[in-house]
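agent: user wants the full assembly modeled, not chains individually. Plan: 1) parse entity lines 2) check alphabet per entity 3) run joint structure prediction 4) return tokens. Steps 1-2 passed, two entities, 992 residues total. Proceeding.
--- entities ---
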Amino acid sequence: MCPVDDASNGVDGHAHTNGHTNGTTNGANAAPETNGFVAVETKQNPHIQTSNPYQPVGDFLSNISRFKIIESTLREGEQFANAYFSTEVKIQIAKALDDFGVDYIELTSPCASEQSRLDCEAICKLGLKAKILTHVRCTMEDARVAVETGVDGVDVVIGTSSYLREHSHGKDMTYIKNAAIEVIKFVKSKGLEIRFSSEDSFRSDLVDLLTLYSAVDKVGVHRVGIADTVGCATPRQVYDLVRTLRGVVSCDIETHFHNDTGCAIANAYVALEAGATHIDTSVIGIGERNGITPLGGLMARMIVADREYVTKKYNLKKLKEIEDLVADNVEINIPFNNYITGFSAFTHKAGIHAKAILNNPSTYEIINPADFGMTRYVHFASRLTGWNAIKSRVEQLGLEMTDAQIKVCTTKIKAMADVRPIAIDDADSIIRTFHGNLHRKEDVPLLPGMTEEEKKLFEMKQAELSGEREKRSLDEAADAQAEVPSGKKTKTGVAA
Amino acid sequence: MCPVDDASNGVDGHAHTNGHTNGTTNGANAAPETNGFVAVETKQNPHIQTSNPYQPVGDFLSNISRFKIIESTLREGEQFANAYFSTEVKIQIAKALDDFGVDYIELTSPCASEQSRLDCEAICKLGLKAKILTHVRCTMEDARVAVETGVDGVDVVIGTSSYLREHSHGKDMTYIKNAAIEVIKFVKSKGLEIRFSSEDSFRSDLVDLLTLYSAVDKVGVHRVGIADTVGCATPRQVYDLVRTLRGVVSCDIETHFHNDTGCAIANAYVALEAGATHIDTSVIGIGERNGITPLGGLMARMIVADREYVTKKYNLKKLKEIEDLVADNVEINIPFNNYITGFSAFTHKAGIHAKAILNNPSTYEIINPADFGMTRYVHFASRLTGWNAIKSRVEQLGLEMTDAQIKVCTTKIKAMADVRPIAIDDADSIIRTFHGNLHRKEDVPLLPGMTEEEKKLFEMKQAELSGEREKRSLDEAADAQAEVPSGKKTKTGVAA
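--- prediction returned ---
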């Protein structure tokens, strides 16, 4: 059942089929019967015959293997509490995202401030492969400013929930529809791509929404957008709404999910299954409150669904670099449990799953860390740690040491762990210092700031431990706790 | 469409209907026709007549409003890379979880080590309200040790995927079924609750799984478990599998989701919609790799689905305390974007959404922070910061200061932000130090480690700023960037 190979229908995800082209075909979403299943044919999702007999029935809607990313770190991400990007930083981030291969880069409205306008123009002039979008209110004033910046497309948005309609702009749906049509026609007349989105879509009236989207589709909007602005939507609500919308419009469908209730990645995934074409992301998910679908998290989800599409299209090995760049600028730490790049993402605790993983990684891993330029990490900062775990870490850190040297270093780490709790970083720093000391005349202390008492205890523990044979003790400890003790192949697994 | 009020069917979620009672009714899951919809009746999900005409059709399966939590910080969480809990810490965590109101606490196998066995016994003797479970391999040896510890129930697990069957224990499904039945009958004969789970369920053969679950259901197992051990499952796969299983067994259904691809919370939610009864969680989600469904994240999801059930049943105001306790012990920082308790969860950036939030929080918030003893936080560590934002932070920190004092403090923070980028923590520490200085004879420096140059620049900026009128400048800045500028009610919203 898992992973699903959605790549099997053979559509070339690299084809530039969306946007710019659907003006004349709107309203043409015929629904031919195919083996009893009704399939919607759109520009994004043409009916290509597949030769794979295992193609799941009713899966014509799915865009799992041909989705596009609208990267919004420079718009949604700029609304993150700690984000204040200078022009240079914005350019650095835009270039990094372009290297990564995102399809679109969305920028803060040029109407937000004079600096925003100038930054928008500067990024448009970089000549990136990614299309540049800016995100403005659905008014002619904003649209006029936007089209002058040099962007490839304009993303407009308007509040459609009854709450926003009553307490905010006070306009009815007819007014909204007319305003939208005016703006769409204007932006199209300038030869630019135009998206129309509602705000807080999941608290808006369904009939209002569909009426509005149907109207803008008829005048040739390139994309309509659904936004879960407050992060309340559940996967089945998303699937139902997108699937319904897929039957109403023939243009592309963009989706934007906040993560307040933990569904931002899952909702993006089911939206694609239901026929959405574009997903909004930001680096590490930064945005309003706890943010939106994270770029890295979406990659984790999608590589499991269609490894070929994702690895061919995106430069996954750049992910960590981009995350570090953004994290530094907004002054946050990468969460320990961050998808793919968090310290524990590919970490296995010695003695529990570690041995199985060392034997065959696919036992307990669905993602290959190497696809992201990452390495598997068998946790070792503990008393159970053995020298082969340290050896793998030494290799990860790119240091050269002989096995004998690694064994001495292991003893020191184990002794240190008995003196005080040591974190991942501490162990790394001990390894680096130990390695440095091999080439120094005088030893640098392995951990800074140790008290005299700690030093004494450390020497004692080290003396105790140096008699032990590390490899054997690791293997025994691992065996005792492993799923499948090496000597007892009839035992059954324990960890779920 | 959102939030859905699933509470409307009026079932008392506090009733202790699951476990211990279904032995005689297994196999009795009749499927009466109700208005054309087939509903499954189980102990957990009896057909209670509802008087609400808006009850969604086909929703008989949903346990959104009567789910139970199996808290596994002391089992799955102990497998987290950095987790080494002492006996005292385990007891502290167990008591905290019990205060919170979790239904079950799951402990590491007593067979893992002598200390694990002793800790298991110690926790059983605490007399907690929560039921205590331990998690062991599906063998008679393990089951015998488990039932002697004093636990209320035993969770057994066995690998059923073809991979584990071929490369691990090498046993076929008939052997697995017979082993399971023997263990189940033994544990039941001791008067204890028994759960049977497969491992890596989403990479197991569906027919094998259903055959096995049907067999153990017939001998009276209290719960069957589905585990997404590698974190590959998608919401629609989960819904389909749980719904199918719901039609096959009449016992309770527990689910366990890893978060490698970002769906652990969403999958738990759709599992409940499909008829699952129990969800496994851990505090901050700690576990193998990047962990499982987090307790706090599940609360965020469920409080939006059924606020009444969640607030009545769980002591939500304890959440932050438990998270801090666990985070301290495993030496991690609470991620900036953590559900509910992360620093940005209820933070709104001055000038973007902040003004709308100050006017009416429900505009951009789906969760009320007060339900968790948290407060809304208008971000202020920036040059846009105004004294009313600082005032709200001072109140959050529980400090007493006059408005005049807060204004002086605000000027200092703004001056500091012009000298160097300041983080949330810096701003908090400035406020605390400033507050302390009000009662000290001699001032403590507001930020430690400032260079002479920085001090000079700070004095200069402070002098410049003290002429300004903070409140007005905040309001103007907020107006300029707000969704709905106060003077222009015909404008439409911008942020999605």
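agent: reporting back. Chain B is about 40% helix and 10% strand. Chain B touches chain A through 119 residues (CB under 8 Å).
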